[in-house]
């Protein structure tokens, strides 16, 4: 079933928070949700222990070297599999992209976050071409205006890679 990963090469852009919010919203809508926490700091796993989660939402701490196998297995057991990825450009980001149907790249109103999202979107396009299958991707604006999460839920484009590239090169 669809696998959605939250990726940025930059730390602190809102990956874990966005993943938790979407997981809860989808679970409250009745879907069977599994979340893979692949960040060695295990923030999502800690969050899941704070208070009881809906019964149809489970969070798994997954070592990065087991990401691919775990994703394959958990996707079959869920309506949506969500993957929280560490904020860096190491191999786990690539592994997450390769197993995803949709890659969300959270981005605050910071130039560094935005450049990191461009890197992710480029990786997704490249891997999608390599695998010869569509991998959707989009930027989710975080720490901006209320309602930004609707972009994820509606899978609506926020801005194109081309526009973002143009914006950054002109110093926006
Ligand atoms: N949409 C948002 N609005 C306001 N604050 C947010 C939002 N998303 C995240 N934050 C805050 O930003 C901080 C970093 O968020 P988060 O831990 O989700 O980022 P991250 O990308 O997962 O970081 P890391 O790369 O370290 O894993 C947290 O304090 C969180 O509460
Ligand atoms: Mg995180």
UniProtKB/TrEMBL annotation:
<dbReference type="InterPro" id="IPR027417">
    <property type="entry name" value="P-loop_NTPase"/>
</dbReference>
<dbReference type="InterPro" id="IPR050678">
    <property type="entry name" value="DNA_Partitioning_ATPase"/>
</dbReference>
<protein>
    <submittedName>
        <fullName>ParA-like protein</fullName>
    </submittedName>
</protein>
<dbReference type="Pfam" id="PF01656">
    <property type="entry name" value="CbiA"/>
</dbReference>
<feature type="domain" description="CobQ/CobB/MinD/ParA nucleotide binding">
    <location>
        <begin position="4"/>
        <end position="128"/>
    </location>
</feature>
<dbReference type="InterPro" id="IPR002586">
    <property type="entry name" value="CobQ/CobB/MinD/ParA_Nub-bd_dom"/>
</dbReference>
